[in-house]
Write a structure and sequence with these properties.
15% strand; 4-stranded antiparallel sheet; cytoplasm; alpha/beta; 3 domains; Rossmann fold; 15 helices; flat; Four Helix Bundle (Hemerythrin (Met), subunit A); 4-stranded parallel sheet; Rossmann-like_a/b/a_fold; zinc ion binding
Length: 484
């Protein structure tokens, strides 16, 4: 069966056919870097990591682009409010670029621990302002956008298909504009900002044909995806919450500029819930990955995520994490047993399991079904090993290769022969985290005692060791200074 992908635009599964045979251009909306990553981020990026892995396993050459939003994402996700990064910088009494750099490093540190492979290209919004200005200039020149008082807005009435992804009608879009006070300078309440005039004191700003300002949130993804993947992208991924307004706006501005379809297959992952309630910072029920990793092996978190289909909600609970830990341990034990067992004479054929696993992944990346097949495989292998004749050397190698390929290379949940060293590495990391926590507790105590010299010395020595410490309103935050 050919690979089938559920296309959010057509609301149906479609046979996957990239623009260029054998080559896939894939773009996934990356994080806005103003805080540490949470479980919702993990759900998205683990899911799309497996999409990229399966495409490569299927023989495609994949160019995976995932952006970093480090400017322009306003606090109400529309055209009003404060830049999220600038706001965090104000709260932490520092520079917006320091905030962006710190939390970008933190994000990649967490993704590395989850086994999420780095994208081929990770462009930043601030690093592609010229490309965004060029796209805006093109839209203004074709009358799809207009300039008012140094701001540039896209005219939704110039693009009749606006809202075709989310399914929102023009009237619904009009009503959504009333949840905040709509700028009266807009021609239509649903028009969205491509360029914002920088107010006095705004730090992150650039010169443009329309004056000093900064790009709107939506324009960065269009400019960067088309720069690196062409005018039509094969796969564009993101969270369901991004359908409107972000992805609807991307479609409008991109297709208005090129006259061509922007994306062939739209993929959207579902949300993380806690007790059936959407996880979010505003609800104070979000789970910070760094806190979660102190108690739980990141590979257990990855396994937990993949037991839910990417389009299904993922409900977090301690009981679910414990169950995932036990399930992952069974697969890891089977891999270790194959590594340590002595060859016998029995035979084992993994062909049927390979076919079943392939069919599951080709059916819109059905990881829960794929994992159930891994458990069936593990049970059959262990039964064969329990027999008096055991398994021959060739059968052991075949079974191990199956797990290394599908549980390891594709799903990223079971390591190959270096599994033991992987666990040792994670144990070392957890020991490091506990040591850092002890030092930070000592620093907090020093600050309470007004021994600021000792407090600064602990911070500086940690920085020398590659641990960057920040004091925030929520408490002390730290991140390893890793390469991005």
């Amino acid at each position: 069966m050919a690979l089938q992908i559920y296309n959010s635009l057509s609301r149906s599964k479609e046979t996957f056919e990239p623009v260029h045979p054998g080559v896939v251009g894939m773009y996934v909306c990356g994080p806005t870097v103003y805080g540490h990553a949470h479980l919702g981020h993990a759900k998205s990026y683990v899911s799309f990591d497996v999409v990229a892995r399966w495409l490569r396993q299927s023989g495609y050459r994949v160019r995976y682009v995932q952006n970093i939003t480090d400017v322009g994402h306003l606090s109400d996700d529309a055209d009003e409010g404060e830049d999220k990064i600038a706001r965090q910088a104000r709260l932490e009494k520092t520079d917006p670029m320091e905030i962006a750099q710190f939390y970008t490093r933190s994000f990649y540190d967490d993704m590395d621990r989850l086994g999420v492979e780095r994208p081929n290209i990770a462009p930043t919004a601030t690093g592609h302002v010229p490309e965004q200005i060029a796209l805006i200039r093109q839209l203004v020149g074709s009358s799809h956008a207009y300039v008012v008082n140094g701001n540039v807005y896209f005219s939704v009435q110039s693009f009749p298909d606006y809202g075709k992804l989310s399914g929102r009608t023009d009237q619904e879009a009009l009503q959504s504009g009333t949840r905040i006070e709509v700028r009266n300078e807009k021609r239509h309440p649903s028009d969205f900002a491509l360029w914002k005039k920088a107010e006095e004191g705004h730090i992150m700003k650039w010169e443009s044909p329309w004056g000093t300002g900064y790009p709107g949130w939506h324009v960065e993804c269009s400019a960067m995806s088309m720069k690196y993947l062409g005018e039509t992208v094969d796969i564009h991924g993101g969270g369901m919450e991004n359908k409107f307004p972000h992805h609807d706006c991307e479609i409008a501005q991109s297709e208005a500029a090129t006259g061509r379809p922007y994306v062939r297959y739209w993929m959207h992952n579902n949300m993380v819930t806690v007790g059936g309630i959407k996880m979010g910072k505003s609800l104070k029920n979000s789970v910070n990955l760094k806190d979660l990793f102190r108690e739980t092996d990141p590979m257990v978190i990855r396994f937990f995520i993949l037991q839910s289909h990417y389009r299904s909600p993922l409900d977090y609970s301690e009981a679910a994490i414990r169950a995932s830990s036990a399930g992952l341990e069974k697969l890891q034990d089977t891999r270790q047993r194959l590594q340590k067992t002595r060859p016998g004479t029995g035979n084992f054929d993994s062909t049927a399991f390979t076919e079943r696993f392939t069919a599951a992944m080709d059916d819109d990346f059905n990881t829960p079904l794929a994992i159930s097949i891994l458990f069936d495989f593990s049970k059959s292998v262990n039964s064969a090993l329990d027999k008096q004749e055991g398994l021959s050397a060739d059968s052991i190698a075949e079974a191990a290769a199956f797990l290394d390929t599908f549980a390891g290379k594709v799903l990223g949940i079971v390591s190959a022969s270096d599994e033991a060293s992987g666990h040792a590495s994670e144990n070392s990391r957890q020991t490091l985290e506990k040591t850092i926590s002890i030092l930070l507790d000592m620093r907090i105590e020093a600050r309470k005692n007004k021994d600021f010299a000792l407090s600064d010395r602990i911070r500086d020595r940690l920085l020398e060791a590659g641990v960057e410490v920040k004091d925030t309103r929520e408490g002390v935050s730290w991140s390893l200074k890793t390469e991005t």
